[in-house]
Specification:
The complex is a heterodimer of chains A (about 450) and B (about 90).
Chain A: E1 4-5, E2 11-13, E3 33-34, E4 37-38, H1 39-46, E5 50-54, H2 55-70, E6 76-81, H3 88-97, E7 100-103, H4 106-114, E8 122-124, H5 131-139, E9 143-146, H6 149-162, E10 167-173, E11 187-188, H7 193-204, E12 208-213, H8 223-244, E13 250-252, H9 270-273, H10 277-289, E14 300-303, H11 307-310, E15 314-325, E16 331-335, E17 352-354, E18 363-368, E19 377-384, E20 392-395, H12 402-405, E21 416-419, E22 425-429, H13 434-438
Parallel strand pairs in A: 5-21, 6-7, 6-14, 7-8, 8-9, 9-10, 10-11, 10-12, 12-13, 13-14, 16-18
Antiparallel strand pairs in A: 3-4, 5-15, 15-16, 15-20, 17-20, 18-19, 21-22
Chain B: E1 8-9, E2 14-17, E3 22-26, H1 28-38, H2 43-53, E4 54-55, H3 58-74, H4 81-88
Antiparallel strand pairs in B: 1-2, 2-3
Classes of the chains: A alpha/beta (about 450), B alpha+beta (about 90).
């Protein structure tokens, strides 16, 4: 007699009454393959857990975003945000599509250069640029986005010393109706700091003010806030034209477009609540086009979109270590991936799908990671089929920020695989070993011997 | 390990406790285990019956079975020992 596929016995109380509007969505539709590669095969070949990136989705997202803006505005340029995901393979997919680079640290800047991005197509952002990094950026004709006055004065000194005119922009912070207002970066629009910085640059005449930059926040769900930012930056650009008879070459609206992830506490699923590229593009381009620029004076529109381009191209494959019952009766499932490699689980309720077929019966569960730390919670409440040891799951939308904010806390970082357009899997970062961790450690000679 | 005898079961996995009015949903294997328990089968007999039918191993089922019985207890679907004693007195 052929035996029946086993599924853990489950029983759930049925609660009659008013439906809970915050009720969780049941995830029992299995995801058994990613871009033609079976999840089971990927785990067998590359181990568990495993990050998987879909090149097809990355390129498609870029094309969607590019089309949304270019359909509405004549001069658009994307710059790949290195901090979102600086795996070289990822960066080069976006560079191949035409993206410039946006770096916020010296090492990201070096990475962009090594990836082959010409210096004059690298935007150098961030509050911490060392003197030597600024020298390199000036030498390479990069766009330096000034964050504070100390940086402005240092660039001025370097310009004199190097006898070069640095290409600079100022970062502007402003009230766009979004709370919290990001006012720690750059110069404020409302209180006149931005104009003060512009005047210092223009009157000193040691550098070229080529752009104006704003980055109003992260995971923005309101396109209207970008319209406010675009209007205020356009106002500054038109003011510069009026006062100094000089055209600002570009307006950079930074990043922050929401991805399809679901923020914790959100009423709607991210896929339903996040604005589309078209909605962001409509708000931004309409504001710039209506600002009053002459046709030939329209500035280049730069976008440093990261998250919305790569988040849904990333998957984390993992396996069940064990199931247990908590004191209050809730099911707890321990996975082999934790918050050390899934930093975004602190603010998203990531969609998690089983990677094998189940019946339609489900259980509410808490998903824990493998770390011996109480904070290692992947999902506080998720409705999943009765998973058993070694069953596999697919975590969705992990392409942004996890592969840059991850750490080797307690467990080592897994491999990353990129599935190309021909559905071939390439390892783009190897699984870490003890040697990876110890390679930078130095043990003083007198501590080499121990006797126990 | 006795399940309450008056528990009503439907083939679709609907479980009803007439004493409390509570209703539950269980999967096919859960339904089968409850039925076996209603037939007064011991844990060992339940295990034997399930292992004969399903693709699983001894340890996995034992672990899952005790967790399932624990949930039946939590949901007041099992006879308590007190009642058992009263019944035998």
């Amino acid at each position: 007699m052929k035996k029946i596929q086993y599924e853990r016995p489950v029983i759930q109380r049925l609660n009659a009454g008013v439906m809970n509007k915050f009720g969780t969505k049941t995830e029992y539709a299995p995801v058994t393959e990613i871009d033609g590669n079976r999840v089971k095969d990927l785990i067998t070949k590359f181990g568990s857990p495993l990050f998987v990136l879909s090149e097809k989705t990355m390129r498609q997202n870029y094309k969607d975003a590019n089309r949304a803006f270019k359909n509405r505005y004549p001069k658009v340029q994307f710059a790949w945000s290195y901090k979102t995901n600086y795996m070289n393979a990822v960066c080069n997919v976006y560079h191949q599509e035409g993206s410039w680079a946006e770096a916020v640290s010296g090492f990201e800047y070096q990475k962009a250069l090594k990836n082959g991005v010409p210096g004059n197509k690298i935007i150098f952002n961030g509050p911490d640029k060392t003197e030597s990094e600024l020298r390199a950026a000036i030498y390479n004709n990069s766009m330096i986005h000034i964050d504070h006055l100390d940086e402005l004065y240092l660039i001025k000194e370097l310009a004199t010393e190097m006898n070069k005119r640095p290409r600079v922009a100022i970062r502007v912070n402003m009230d766009t109706g979004i709370y919290p207002m990001w006012d720690r970066f750059g110069f404020n629009y409302e209180n006149g700091q931005a104009w003060d910085a512009i005047n210092k640059i223009m009157l000193n005449d040691k550098m070229d003010l080529v752009g104006l930059h704003a980055h109003i926040g992260t995971f923005m769900l309101a396109p209207s806030a970008y319209a406010v930012a675009a209007t205020k930056l356009s106002d500054l650009a038109l003011g510069v034209k009026l006062k100094y008879k000089k055209n600002i070459q570009y307006i950079d609206l930074g990043g922050g477009f929401a991805s399809k992830n679901t923020l914790k506490g959100s009423y709607l699923q991210g896929a339903d609540s996040s604005p589309s590229f078209d909605q962001f593009a409509e708000a931004i381009t309409t504001a710039i086009l209506n600002a009053g620029f002459g046709e030939s004076d329209l500035p280049l529109l730069i976008l440093e979109t990261g998250r919305a381009l790569v988040d849904d191209a990333g998957y984390l494959l993992g396996s069940v270590i064990s199931n247990k019952r908590l004191a209050d009766g809730r099911r707890a499932t321990i996975m082999d991936f934790g918050v050390n490699i899934m930093f975004t689980s602190f603010w998203y309720d990531h969609k998690i799908s089983p990677a094998q077929e189940f019946s339609q019966y489900t259980e509410d569960a808490v998903l824990y990671g493998p770390l011996c730390m109480n904070i290692d919670v992947i999902r506080e409440n998720v409705t999943l089929p009765p998973l058993k040891r070694n069953d596999q799951v697919v975590v969705h939308c992990v392409g942004a920020y996890n592969m840059t904010q991850w750490m080797q806390f307690i467990s080592l970082r897994p491999a990353i695989v990129l599935i190309d357009l021909e559905e071939k899997a390439h390892v783009i970062r190897k699984r870490e070993t003890l040697q990876t961790i110890e390679s930078e450690e130095v043990l003083p000679a007198y501590l080499k011997e121990i006797k126990l | 390990m006795n399940i309450k005898r008056n528990i009503a079961l439907s083939d679709s996995g609907f479980v009803f406790n007439p004493s409390t009015g509570d209703s539950f949903s269980t999967n096919p294997i859960g339904l089968e285990i409850i039925r076996l328990l209603q037939e007064m089968k011991t844990a060992e007999q339940v295990k034997k019956a399930i292992l004969a039918q399903y693709l699983t191993d001894d340890a996995t089922f034992e672990k899952d079975f005790y967790d399932f019985v624990n949930m039946l207890n939590r949901f007041n679907l099992m006879e308590t020992e007190e009642k058992d004693e009263k019944a035998t007195n």
